[in-house]
Amino acid sequence: MSISQLARSIRESATLKLNETAALLRDKGEPVIHLGGGEPKSKVPLDAIINMTSLAHTGEVRYTPPDGIPSLKKAIIRYTEEQYGRTIHADNVIVSGGAKQAIMCFLHTILDPKDEVIILAPYWVSYPEMVKLAGGVPVIVKGEDGTFQPTLKEIAEACGQYTKAVIVNSPNNPSGAMYPAEFIAEIVAFCEKKKLYLLMDDIYNRLTFDGKTAPNCYDYTQLDVENSRMMVVNGVSKMYGMTGFRIGWAVGSTPLIETMAIIQSQQTSGPAAPSQWAAVGALNGVQSAIANLRTTLENNRNVMVERLQAFDGVKVVKPAGTFYCFPDFSAYEKDSQKLADFLLEKVRVVVVPGKEFGFEGYLRLSYCGSIKDVTEGLERMKWALDPNSPNELYLGERKLVRDWL
Known about the structure:
Elements: H1 5-9, H2 14-27, E1 33-34, H3 46-58, H4 70-84, E2 93-96, H5 99-110, E3 116-120, H6 126-133, E4 137-141, H7 152-158, E5 163-169, H8 181-194, E6 197-201, E7 230-235, E8 248-251, H9 254-267, H10 273-284, H11 288-308, E9 324-325, H12 336-347, E10 349-350, E11 352-353, E12 363-366, H13 371-385, E13 392-395, E14 398-401
């Protein structure tokens, strides 16, 4: 069988693979705790369910326009005005099968072979592979000081004649770090000066803690949407806990959006009608779901950080948003894949190796599950790694004896 060179170059999504592994172990009756997921456990907003079922009850569930139904575009326009203070039009919006597809359509629209895309480390696992799928070359920029924020100088030094775009994800997956307003202002100004595209992945921008709000990228440009190379991506998956509906969107200039719509029409046609109507319900309905989820996540974050600080040698930066924590476990094991495999094998805790995000020795831990998962998962991890912990641990009725320290 012949497989293309491009297909052979693309790596499997580490996070999706872990979800599959956790599900298989649970099916076998294993007491797995999944601290590697990116899926809130909150219920989907009732307004979303009502809107979706209203459509289903008509029996008229048909194809949709390739760039999204008018009602959802209208809701996104209003959302953009309220959250970003920016007036846009329907031609500035594309609705996709998740924010991931919106990003892929954007990359396919702007990239030619050999074009480079600057990606800030730590980064979402899919960014480099998505750039490669679009024919581009990912260029990773990691801060020399070891923090979660490269400097503008480091970003500028990584740019060359083939640089086409910069991707910024804040609050950041996997670190939970939120780039300060000054940094966002610098990036916007730099991209405008260099005539680079700037992709702002704002999928977590409503899930921020400690009373803080994410900086608004539009505050730092004098250009209107039509004359800007900035593309802002968002969706309902994270802030409304609607991961299974697969609805995201992008806001940008009309020429970019039109081309993205053509590409999307050949990829998948329009997103599923029930999912789009559910998104309309979420955006237009009661917004308490976001605040409730944010409160739950902030509490879970506090518990996770407190428990991690009890690990000898573990370094942890308190996340400012998202539902991820990205502690440094290199004091125990510098090979993050080896450490993740060890924790899964010994105590059935699923975590994501930091190397998948560009930071070896780190683990991405998620606190979007139950507080019980957070506390018990970290208890198991500490038992597996800390020689000062009791020698025995019970997983349900199974007694484990630590014989490796």
